[in-house]
Amino acid sequence: MSRKGADIAAMRREMLDAHLLTFMVPADAKLDRQPLLAQARTWWRARIKTNRPTCIGCRASFAEGAEVGSFLFSTAAVVPTSASVSAFCCKCASDLSPDDIDRVATKVLRKLAPGGEFLDPRDAP
Ligand SMILES: [Zn+2]
Q: Does 122 fall in a domain?
């Protein structure tokens, strides 16, 4: 299993019977109040050359020059200790419609929480 696969497997175990919180932020968003996300972004950026992540919208390689337009993070809702990190390139972040962004993000998040349901926090009691 690749490191990425191991990370996803670890996240799956952590997320079983739990809720995920998801965050989509511009690449350069200030994350001072979200240190876990800031740390995950730093970790992700430091490993671009070795992990060779690709845009979740078009598969452009960040290791080969694609620029990050926005990050998609997910964490456990209760006592989060890690965050998954995915990214859209600048082109996808600016060109994809909100529906397309939502479709791609949903596909990515389904890998972390198979069978999970999406809840709107505005509907929470
Ligand atoms: Zn892209």
A: no
Give the count of domains, the chain.
1
Distance 48 CA to ligand 1 centre (A): 15
For residue 37, being part of any structural domain is answered with: yes
- Nearest alpha-carbon partner for 41 in 60, 62, 59: 62
Ion ligand 1, residues whose Cβ is below 5 A away = 55, 57-58, 60, 89, 92
Domain that holds residue 44: 3-114
Is 70 within a domain?
yes
CA of 78 to the centre of ligand 1 (A): 31
Mean confidence (pLDDT) of the chain: 87
- Burial class of residue 68 (count of CB atoms within 10 Å of its CB; 0-12, 13-18, 19+): buried
Q: Is it the case that residue 113 has pLDDT exceeding 80? A: no
Q: What is the pLDDT of residues 7-33, one digit of tens each?
A: 776 666 655 556 788 999 999 999 999
Helix extents (H) in the chain: 3-15, 35-46, 48-51, 90-95, 98-112
- How many Å lie between the centroid of ligand 1 and the Cα of residue 62? 9
